[in-house]
Amino acid sequence: MFLRMPANCFPYATATQHMDLDHTIAYRSPARGGPPRQTGVHSLGPLIRFEHRVKTHGRWRVRQPEPGVWIWRSPRHVHYLVTNAGTYSLGDGPFARRIWHAAAPAKQRAGPTP
Q1: CB 82 within 8 A of CB 10
Q2: pTM given for the model
């Protein structure tokens, strides 16, 4: 994981040390009904503790549409694309909202079942 993403995956972060691998979607124990294979490059990102707390207890949200790509939404609904090449601000307009929606897990994107 750290070879794929040597720095923190939070927008504009530069930390390269003292990082933990954080689940993009909150981990739920299989004993409590959590799905299998929750942990892998498809669902992890390196974060320092402060940014983990911001994600977990703050109003920042993150989605990981594929390994090595994170889409963050700030409390003011500004969207950021983060990869190992850096952070790109997507803004808060219709394009950014479409990217955010497209990055949702399939079960969240699906509309009502007829």
Answers
A1: yes
A2: 0.83
